[in-house]
Design a protein that fits this description.
Strand order of the largest sheet: 5-4-6-3-2-1-7
Radius of gyration: 15 Å
Strand content: 25-35%
Number of helices: 2
Shape: globular
Helix content: under 10%
Order of helices and strands: EEHEEEEHE
Mean pLDDT: 78
Length: about 160
């Protein structure tokens, strides 16, 4: 199994692959489905987000996760913290939207956090996406939705779920 590395990527909002309330049981939710299994290529038809996808920063190393959004006045796109199951907004300058993802990149929970807050960890979360407050609503990121990550020039392909 590969590992995530720091770099850039593109985030696509795929939607609820099941057509029902249970994102774990349906087309595209099998054990072989991974970040690379979703339609993240040029023929993808994203449900939400900008037409070309959402610019994404991948923070996989301890140092990159610790830095996160600290010291920034804003963010174009989103940042993926991996592995992560919880976040805080201490010393941050702006409110953020947080999406907790499971290992299949299905959104478990979404919340908006003001600066100076501690978010409680989510037990099944393996990754956390952060964006400026209001972004998830504009891009259609909500509980049960799946996302796909297409690696950028400086990031290797995402790991398989093996």
């Amino acid at each position: 199994m590969g590992r995530w590395r720091d770099g850039t990527a593109t985030l696509r909002v795929l939607g609820d692959g099941t057509g029902a309330g249970d994102p774990e049981a349906g087309p595209g939710a099998g054990p072989e489905a991974g970040p690379e299994a979703g339609p993240a290529g040029p023929d993808a038809r994203p449900e939400g987000g900008p037409e070309g996808g959402i610019p994404l920063i991948v923070a996989a190393s301890y140092r990159a996760r610790a830095r996160g959004l600290l010291g920034r006045d804003g963010l174009t796109g989103a940042i993926l913290l991996t592995p992560a199951s919880g976040v805080h907004t201490f010393r941050m300058r702006f409110a953020i939207d947080v999406a907790y993802l499971d290992r299949r990149l299905t959104v478990l929970a979404v919340r908006t956090m003001r600066p100076g807050r501690l978010g409680r960890p989510r037990p099944r979360a393996r990754h956390v996406l952060e964006a400026e407050a209001g972004a998830w609503e504009r891009w259609g990121v909500r509980r049960g939705v799946r996302v796909a990550i297409a690696p950028g020039a400086s990031a290797p392909p995402p790991p398989s779920l093996g």
